[in-house]
Amino acid sequence: MEERSRIVLQAIVVRLAIAPFFMHAGDVGTIYESSAMALKGLNIYDFVYARTLQLQNTTGLPVFFEGYAYHPLLIWFYAPFYWFFTLIAGPNPVMIDGHYPSLPVLIYPWTPLLLVMLKVPIILADAFVVYLLAGMDVKKAEIYAFCPYTIFISVVWGMFDALVAVFLLASYLTASRNNMLSGVFYGLSLVKLYTAVLLPLYVYRLFGKWRALAEFAGGFALTLIPVAYFLVVSPNSIWNVLVTFQGARLMGGVNMYNFIWIVQDLPFDLIVSMIPNILLLVAVLWLIPRLGKDAPLLESMLAIMFAYFLFGKVINEQFLVAIFPLILLCKECDHRLWVAPFVFIFLRSPFYYFALPILWTSPVFYSYYLQADVVWRQLQAEGYLQIPMYAVGVAFSLAILWNLLQILKTTRPGVPVGPFASASKSRLTTRVPVRSLRNLPSLRVTSRVRVAFFEGSRRRSMTSQI
User: Fold this and answer.
1) What is the pLDDT of residue 242?
2) Does any domain span residue 452?
3) What pTM did the predictor assign?
4) Is residue 440 one of the residues assigned to a domain?
5) How many CB atoms lie under 10 A from the CB of residue 116?
């Protein structure tokens, strides 16, 4: 068997073996609930907005119901698999509730099958990332395929950042050949909105190349059609869910801002949480012209995303998956960045929480869960986990900063980059060829990845024609 196919197959098998037994109840429950609503033709944003208003009226606080707060296109990656599941198990609910602080009611024997079906889009996204990386470098593909962090997020947690990863990677790989396709892939990466920070970079690099910019914008606009539809039929709902909620979230996560969790004053916390938005805006406005139009796209994308990870106010544990393939392609970056968010998972959520599908199979197991949860909540309430959480967050921010500085060293103004750098001007010093030679490996890497991508595209096209 070809090495590439072997790694992809192994990655799929590992994920399928884990998928039926674990989940993050809140996130998987949201996808399940939203898939069922989508198939019934219901407006998901109206549902979430109504629950938010109910929650705010009940508590008197500016809080939000944390339901489906994603791009409208996302749910259609899941709905076909949920529909297929209903053909087997029927339309009756299999997972009831599960939104924090409630625990879900799981119906057996169908829950394991449901978990597999809802994770198929994530597993396929991971497999495609591995396929692309394996066409370039087997070791890098193996790192992604068998990294405990990527596996955990995809099939233990059940979160779909792998979809962001594959679309962002595809956008990068197609950028130099097909701007419209690159725009489509970039638009699809917005199934989680944090990649919006890259849009100014794309526009800046294409500004002045009007045809290329129009092609990119056209592809990007295609992915916004569902957003435009909901802005017409339910403007208040989608605006509240996608914009107001995301803009008004409390800062924290795997970053230097999670100290805010010890301040028990929500209105004050929300006001302070506006500061990171200003820092991020300043950082992006400084970085884009600093990188310029000639810096390598890979390094430029990572620099902007690192700025988001450093200054963005909400950095959840799973976000790094989205740029992990790009990190593996960048020789200046350290792929071990995943360690800090992986550790952070178990400081914020106990492992047994992800094992609920197993614990639900026995009243004895479930009673152990409830006993352990009492102890865990006491540890949280007394603040014993706050110091290690803050330490890990700061460590991750420092690691991100170091990687950002490494990228900026190689893209500083005046340093020639790209395949024609060594022949750009006759006044270059003798150091330039050395620097250019250092860039050659990354150029060959990019070339091999792009070739792999388009070979795969042609094969899929031929298959579909057959």
Assistant:
1) 92
2) no
3) 0.86
4) no
5) 19
